[in-house]
UniProtKB/TrEMBL annotation:
The keyword Ribosomal protein does not apply. Pfam families: GAF (PF01590), PEP-utilisers_N (PF05524), PEP-utilizers (PF00391), PEP-utilizers_C (PF02896). PANTHER family: PHOSPHOENOLPYRUVATE-PROTEIN PHOSPHOTRANSFERASE. Belongs to the PEP-utilizing enzyme family. InterPro entries: GAF (IPR003018), GAF-like_dom_sf (IPR029016), PEP-util_enz_mobile_dom (IPR008279), PEP-utilizing_PTS_enzyme (IPR050499), PEP_util_C (IPR000121), PEP_util_CS (IPR023151), Phosphohistidine_dom_sf (IPR036637), PTS_EI-like (IPR006318). NCBIfam families: PTS_I_fam. This is phosphoenolpyruvate--protein phosphotransferase. One of its GO terms (biological process) is phosphoenolpyruvate-dependent sugar phosphotransferase system. It catalyses: L-histidyl-[protein] + phosphoenolpyruvate = N(pros)-phospho-L-histidyl-[protein] + pyruvate. Residues 28-173 form the GAF domain. It comes from the Bacteria.
């Protein structure tokens, strides 16, 4: 520990000792706050120390040392207003050498703060919500040391207890508050794992209120934390050994990464440093956890955010153990069909629940690559994420309905809504049964055209869907998923095992492996680039661009794929090819590795078929150059469409612009179909577009004969294919593209209904 850290720790301990005496004194709350700002100012050698508290929805200056006393109870700021309001709204820390340079700075003349330059502020947090702000200021412009900020955050925890006990903040600041929740409502979220679910709301964990913040005996608190760490690690090891998903899978790697966090020495060291400053074990864990939450809010990288979620999960577990409040909803047992609600979950916590009773999960946060999502998908549990205020909108035992098809959660639905949902559930099961009956039926149109229907995959377990759906093969295996769930770069042996398992599980059916598509919005912390972040990550340094620059990464993957396909056909596809030379360069990496392994007398694939992803529109202009070199071409409709329309597919205001059934998109795809006709090329459409019945109809009508889609869409697409006269559909599409109607989607849908096409 550096001298600065030692000094800050001693200062924090001195502050806590003096605050303990203040809190025990028989004086009113205002007098205590007046003493508090003097104590903090003295201990941190601060010229200004101020406390703002949330009252009636605004931040009010309650006590200050260094600013004009006339401003106390006069200066008020709305949430988000000024530096103080920004800290409270975002629950974040600010550390500024020059306060006036910050875009949110607002000058309040009554305070007399114009002579002060440097500023630092931390939120005073109660029940995960900012109920106030603690600020310090100096005349001299300077950034405060990290240890000084940590001392302020420690003090803010004590202040939280003091002001809550004194009843100084809004009542809702320390609880869910708000009006009585009785009315029905519909909330929109982001589907993470598809499905329908009905059940009673159960909160993953009750809130733990820390009653004692200041430690009486530091060594005793340290021993409590040590014991809690031992118990927590035993729990994690036991759960990981008992998890049952079948044989193998990326979720196994997820749990290994999760265990790595449980044994992380840096995390335990930070908690011990918080105890050194004078906090109890519970307060120290919460102190580090608050810091983790603040960091999470500042992280744009979804993978790093997922890692922080794992750490938050472990913090919750450790806090429950050390406080003796270890009963989560899982430990207490589920008594009925349940929809679980949490801000976020770690994979181990999800594994604790009775899978017979757990029908769905709703998360305030969550992402498609989060560890809990991977495990939930393996368990077959629908998950709705990014429901920002769900914890404050739902009561325990409220009836909830999850419908990922509608991206919605229905809260306290009316009886008629429940009845309609149950009917939808029944119809869904009946449809699934009807689609399952098509497993061994060929997807052939009414006029006899055979359509190849393949699946997209990214997990070892996804290959089981080939047998369940009767799909013709895997048209897209996303190899980057193994990289996204791993804490470190997957070594060749791990990649080799995955690819070999996938090929073995697929049997005689083909598998197209897409080389790793990372970078942009799928960045990896262990391959992080220096420099500023990308403004347009989808169009940035990603996919084959990264692979060709970091050719060691592509070489390792090439060797693993070639060795895994020994004695078989290897289908390999390169993503985001914009010009033919990129394909040539990527293929050469594989050819070099093939020659290397040949020299080592390794068993080689019988054949390697090379392909490219057409996601960048520019590639369509050089298909005459690329065509003779490739065995297959896959149109990636997700990226291609947003590039063609200049419409970010994730932007809510552009959702209506991101329509696949548009003349521009369909004409473009038809042109690609015609461009590759002179070559012996398999042309496939990969992506969400091919998995929707109306969109798939449009694709077939412009000449597409191979679709690679999500496994859940195979049955519906087969049913649609068997219901159409392809010649009639193609003729109608030619008319529509020659003279586009005002609404292509509605026109095509009306035609399909008139023709009796199966559209679900």
């Amino acid at each position: 520990m550096s001298q600065a850290q030692i000094n800050a720790t001693l200062a924090a301990r001195n502050i806590l000792t003096r605050l303990h005496d203040v809190m025990a004194a028989r004086t009113n709350a205002q007098a205590k706050l007046n003493q508090v700002v003097d104590i903090i100012g003295d201990s941190l050698n601060s010229e200004v120390c101020s406390i703002y508290l949330l009252r009636e929805g605004v931040l009010e200056l309650f006590a200050t040392r260094g600013l004009n006393q006339e401003a106390v109870h006069v200066t008020k700021l709305a949430l988000g207003q000024g530096l103080t309001g920004t800290i409270a709204k975002n629950v974040e820390t600010l550390n500024l050498a020059e306060a006036t340079a910050h875009p949110d700075f607002q000058y309040r003349p009554e305070t007399g703060e114009e002579k002060f330059h440097s500023f630092a502020g931390v939120p005073i947090v109660r029940m995960e919500r900012a109920v106030g702000v603690l600020c310090i200021q100096h005349v001299e412009p300077r950034r405060y040391l990290e240890v000084e900020i940590e001392a302020m955050q420690t003090v803010a925890m004590v202040l939280s207890e003091l002001i809550a006990n004194a009843g100084l903040v809004d009542a809702q600041g320390a609880s869910d508050g708000g009006a009585e929740l009785t009315h029905s409502q519909r909330e929109i979220g982001f589907p993470l794992v598809a499905g329908l679910a009905s059940g009673k709301a159960v909160f993953h964990q009750p809130r733990i209120t820390i009653e004692h913040v200041v430690a009486e005996d530091v060594e005793a608190e340290r021993q409590r934390v040590y014991s809690a760490f031992i118990k927590m690690r035993e729990q994690i090891d036991k759960m990981a050994s008992q998890a049952e998903f079948g044989t193998g899978g990326e979720h196994d790697e997820v749990l290994e990464t999760y265990k790595m966090f449980a044994y992380d020495e840096g995390w335990s060291r930070r908690i011990n440093e918080a105890i050194d400053s004078g906090l109890t074990a519970e307060a120290a864990i919460e102190r580090v956890q608050q810091r983790t939450r603040m960091r999470m809010r500042q992280i744009d990288d979804p993978l790093l955010a997922d890692r922080m979620h794992d750490l938050e999960d472990l913090s919750n577990r450790l806090l429950r153990i050390v406080s003796g409040q270890i009963g989560t909803a899982a430990q207490m047992g589920l008594r009925q069909d349940t929809i679980l609600i949490a801000r976020n979950l770690g994979p181990a916590e999800l594994l604790e629940y009775d899978r017979r009773r757990l029908k769905g999960v709703i998360l305030e946060e969550g992402s498609l690559t989060a560890h809990v999502t991977i495990v939930a998908r393996a368990m077959g549990i629908p998950v709705m994420g990014r429901m920002r205020n769900i914890l404050h909108q739902v009561r325990q035992d409220d009836h909830l309905l999850i419908d990922t098809n509608e991206n919605s959660v229905l809260i306290r639905p009316a009886p008629q809504v429940i009845e309609a949902f149950e009917a939808k559930f029944v119809r869904s099961r009946e449809k699934q049964a009807a689609y399952a009956a098509l497993r061994d039926v060929e997807p052939r149109t009414k006029d006899g055209t055979r359509i190849d229907v393949l699946i997209n995959a990214g997990l070892r377990d996804d290959i089981a869907h080939l047998a369940v759906t009767g799909a013709d093969g895997v048209g897209l295996f996303r190899t980057e998923f193994q990289f996204l769930v791993s804490a470190t770069l997957p070594q060749r042996e791990r990649q080799l095992r995955l690819y070999r398992d996938v090929l073995d599980a697929a049997g005689e059916k083909p598998v197209v492996f897409r080389t790793v598509d990372i970078g942009g919005d799928k960045s990896l912390p262990y391959l992080r680039e220096d420099g500023p972040g990308e403004e347009n990550p989808a169009m940035g340094w990603r996919a084959v661009r990264v692979a060709l620059e970091r050719d060691g990464l592509l070489k390792v993957q090439a060797r693993a794929l070639i060795e895994a396909a020994a004695g078989k056909t290897l289908n390999v596809m390169f993503p985001m090819i914009a010009e033919p030379w990129e394909f040539d360069a990527a293929r050469q990496v594989f050819e070099d590795q093939l020659n290397f392994l040949k020299g080592r007398k390794k068993i080689l694939p019988d054949r390697i078929r090379y392909g490219a992803m057409l996601e960048v529109p520019a590639l369509a202009e050089t298909l005459d150059l690329l065509g003779p070199k490739i065995d297959f071409l896959s149109i990636g409709t997700n990226d291609l469409t947003q590039f063609l329309l200049a419409a970010d597919r994730a932007h809510p205001k552009l959702a209506q612009r991101y329509d696949w059934i548009s003349p521009a998109i369909l004409r473009f795809i038809r042109r690609v179909v015609k461009s590759v006709e002179p070559y012996d090329i398999d042309l496939t459409v990969c992506g969400e577009m091919g998995g929707r019945q109306l969109e798939a109809l449009a694709l077939l009508a412009v000449g597409i004969r191979r679709l690679s889609i999500t496994p859940a869409a195979v049955g519906p697409i087969k049913a649609m294919v068997r219901s159409i006269d392809l010649k009639a559909a193609s003729s109608r599409m030619e008319e529509m593209l020659a003279h586009p109607p005002a609404n292509m989607r509605e026109t095509l849908q009306d035609w399909a209904m008139d023709q009796g096409v199966e559209l679900g």
